[in-house]
Amino acid sequence: MLSAVTASQQPAAVAAAGSMDSELGCASDWEPSCTRAQLALDPADLVWKLTVPDLPAGTYEFKAALNRSWDELRGRRGFPRRQHRL
Fold first, then answer.
1. Cystine design at 36: which of 25, 44, 65, 85 (Cβ 3.0–4.6 Å)?
2. pTM of this prediction?
């Protein structure tokens, strides 16, 4: 989950770019531009969310890539080089 204080502080897009992207239907893993890896901003609480009901059991890693590219990303604890683990 990623959030910001106001709607104006939100990026244009947030992707869960990671090792599960091919399972989501992307051409390959670690694709920040893949439409299926994009989170949706919930206007009620300003939290970016992605629901994946059919993700096969396993261990996956991802980074929150902003604006469909690797130009800006958020890894574990805010460090760009650390991945989040599912």
1. 25
2. 0.79
Q: Is the pLDDT of residue 2 over 60?
A: no
Q: What pLDDT does residue 75 have? A: 53
Name the nearest CA neighbour of 48 among 9, 22, 77: 9
Q: Domain map of the chain by residue range?
A: 2-85
φ, ψ at 23 (rounded to 5°): -70, -25
Both tokens assigned to 13: 């897009």
Q: Which CATH class is domain 2-85?
A: mainly beta
**Strand (E) or helix (H) holding 44:** none
- How many CB atoms are closer than 10 A to CB 19? 16
Distances (CA, A) of 9 to 4, 13, 52: 6, 12, 26
What are the Cα distances from residue 57, in Å, to 7, 40, 42, 60? 34, 23, 26, 9
